[in-house]
Amino acid sequence: MKAFSLSFLLFFCSLLIVLVIINYDVPIRTIVQITALLLVVALITVHLFDHAFARKEVKWFLLFLTSFIVQLLVASTGGLSSPFFILLHLTAFGIGLLISSTTALLFLGSSALVLVGSLLLDSSTQSLWLQDPAATILYIISFISVVPLVLLLTRNYSLKDTIVTLLTNQVKVDENILAELNELAFITDRKSNILAVNDAVEEMLLKPREALLHRPLFSVLFLRDKDGTVINQESLKLDTILNEKISRNVDNLSLLATTSVTSQKINMRIKPIAGMKDIEDQISFIISGTTRIANDVHKNLEEASARHNAMTEALKKKLFTKQSEEFYTFVIVSTAEKDILNTWIIEDHPIEEKKVPVDVASLCKEAVVSEQGFAQALDVSLQFALPDFGQKDIAPFITSLFTIASEKFTGPFFTAPCEVKYLSIAIQKLLELAILLATREQRPLVQLDVTRQGDKALLIAITTTVPQIVLEKQAEMFVMYYGTLAGRTKLHLGSGLEGYLAKKIVDALNIPMTITTAETQHRITFQLEINKERK
User: Has this prediction a pTM greater than 0.70?
Assistant: First the structure.
């Protein structure tokens, strides 16, 4: 809104100055001198803008100069019949591509007012209109026709630029994650053509990634079972694995690498990966039992994770402003990616509990806010509440001269010693699990409540509406990939790790978790009890 107001003000000032110059019939020689001087100023400003003195104000100054110079040239040389008339179109396209389509439309609107004003104030322009009104009408039509072109071009250019940036960075992050796995990892399509591999595959097969991608898996990977039978797509029955959404373990295989004359004993896990909209199902092949050449894979992990999170949030914000379907797809993909990374870290590094006093209510509220994008992507309502807590509770702690909302003064009432990082992850994963479970309900709702249990404990309750099948198979919610629930609900939209991660962390932190159900209302509540007394 601030950018819109500033653009409007700049174009309005440009419009007024140009009309004043036209009204006072400033000689064309003087106008040329003014234009030349302003062009020099613009070039100097651009030079400074590209170097150490760059500031946001310079961008708006350049926008004003550009608008003023173009409108002055057009208005002073005949208006609609000006030889510089095309500059209005080109400038609108440039502003649309570099700034926004809204700013480009504001420029066209102010330029239209300049043309109308010059027509009313300049008698020579009026005579041209009277002599050849048909040509003037054609000029007007050409001016108006550029509006949808500006909107279409800028929207597609900006969206494609965002998506290309997103996908480029996403590929880099995915490759970094795959590079850290201590196993050979292949991702293929339904026909077992390789779509992605990790660094261990390149090291084992001594082939660059480009030489492996899009080739049939079993043309680069030679496997035999314990009886010496060659393993291929038909013998593994991959179509059955995909259609029935089941995983399969194949043990006691021999791997014959193309770079070696000896075979290695390996185990292989085959898992179907459910596709999303416009993306077909894929298959992952994880081969364990091989020797990893590079062992130092944990350097600067926290720093890399922080940089990745910053990049993800920036792209998420940029896509959100466009309100496009790509935003929701990105939210789901980035959430799944974090699950994979967190699972890998927790599996490789046992949780070291470091308890510090923390406002649990504030922690839970932040978790709800951070998961709103994930909930919106799946059309689920996500709410936060502090039942039985309000102004009456904080009244003894504040004076009549000091007013504050109760939800902003939770520290004295909801503080407990916790392991902040992992408790936050556990709450987020439970919220994501609850959101995924609620997706098939007519009015999906997930609510997180924090209540006090006297002075000794806090109770975090996450309640969600669920289908009947979830009530019948609760145990599968905390199994990696959700067992058969994944194929009978919309749990496949997540990473398949939400419940597993939450249970893993809760057990490691020794936090009591209970699950209560209300079958008549199709509701499940996950409850975490946080002890307020330091142990």
Answer: no
